Amino acid sequence: MKPSVELEGDLGRTIGEILQLEAEWDRNRAAPSTHRLSASEDREEREKARRREAVTSEIRRLEGVAAGLRRDIANTRTTELAPVVQVVPSKGAAQMARVRENIESAQAEIENLHARQRELIVAAAAGDKAAARKLEELKIAAARAGNQIETGIEATELLQQQRAEELLEFSIRDADAKFTAGRNAAAAAVVAHDRATDEMMRALAGHLAERPALLNAVRKSGCEIDDARLNSLWTVEVLHRAAKASGLAGHLRIAIKDAVPLAQASDTLLRHTVRRPNLKDKAA
C-alpha cells in the first residue's frame, strides 16, 4: 500500500475532480422555460440531461474512491505511527522443553533405582552374588542417569544464554524498526503537513501584498479622506486582530487582546474615512 502522504495526494486530486464535475453538472442544469421548446432546444435539453446523468454517475464513483482513500489513509497512518512490535521467536524453546523433560525423567529414574538398590543391599552384603551383580548394575544406571541430569543442566544454561542473545538481537532490531518508523512515517507526515502550511502562507503573503495598492487606490480616488482612519488600516495591529479573530494568533504566538475580522475593520473604518468632496470649498 502507498504511504499516507501519497494517498492524501490521491484524495486531493479525486476531490478536485469531483468539484469540477459538480461545476459541469451545474452548467448542464435544465433551463427553466415557460414556452414550448423548439426542436433544437429540445435536443439541447436532452443532451444536457444525458450529460447530467453521466456526470452524476461519475461523481458517485469518485465519491466511492474518495471514501476508500480516506479509509486507506486512516489505516496506513495507524500502521505507520503505531509502535513497532517485533515478534521474538525462540529457536531453542522446543529444545529447552525436551531437555527439561529428560532431566525430570532422569530424576524419576534415579529415585526408582535408589529404591531398588535399597531392596538389594542387605542380600548383596550377605553374599548373594546375583543380588550383588544386580546392585552394581543399578548403581551404574543411577550414575548414567546422574550424568544425564548434569548434561541437561549444562544444556539448560547454554540454551538460556542463547535465548538472552536472541532477545538482545531482536531488541536491537526492534529499536531500529521504531527509529525507522518515527523518521520515515511520523516525520514524513509532519513534513507533508508543514509543506502544505508553507504553500498556504505563501498564498496569504501574496494576497496581503495586494492590499497596499488597494488602500492607495482609496487615497487617490479623489474623495476627501480621513488620513488618521485610513492610516490605521496600514498598521500591523489590524492584521494581528484579524489573526486573533481567525484563530491564527495563538499558532503564531501573537499577543493581542481584541479580535476583529479584517473585513469588518476595513468596512467600519472606510465608511468613516471616505467622504464626498466639499464642492463649496472648490467653488470659493
Average per-residue pLDDT, rounded, comes to 83
Summarize the helix and strand pattern as letters. Answer: HHHHHEHHHHEH
> How many structural domains does the protein architecture include?
3
Counting helices, strands and paired strands, the structural category is mainly alpha
What's the shape?
Answer: elongated
Low-confidence stretches: none
**What percent of the residues sit in helical stretches (DSSP H or I)?**
over 70%
How would you sum up the major sheet?
Answer: 2 strands, antiparallel
Q: What oligomerization state is this entry in? A: single chain
Give the terminus-to-terminus CA distance.
81 Å
Kindly state the number of beta strands: 2
Strand order of the largest sheet: 1-2
- Assess the beta-strand content as a share of residues: under 5%
Using only CA atoms, what is the Rg?
44 Å
Counted by DSSP, the helix tally is: 10
Region (Disordered): 29-52
Coiled coil: 96-123
Biased composition (Basic and acidic residues): 38-52
Keywords: Coiled coil
Summarize the structure.
The chain is mostly helical.
Outline the structure in words:
- The protein is mainly α.
- It has three domains: about 5-80; about 95-180; about 210-284, no CATH class.
- The protein is about 80% helix and about 0% strand.
- It has helices spanning about 5-25, 40-80, 95-125, 130-210, 210-220, 225-230, 235-245, 250, 260-275, 280-284, and strands at about 225, 275.
- It has a two-stranded antiparallel sheet.
- α1 runs antiparallel to α2 (about 40-80) and α3 runs antiparallel to α4.
- The chain is elongated and about 155 Å long.
- The two termini are about 80 Å apart.
- Keywords: Coiled coil.
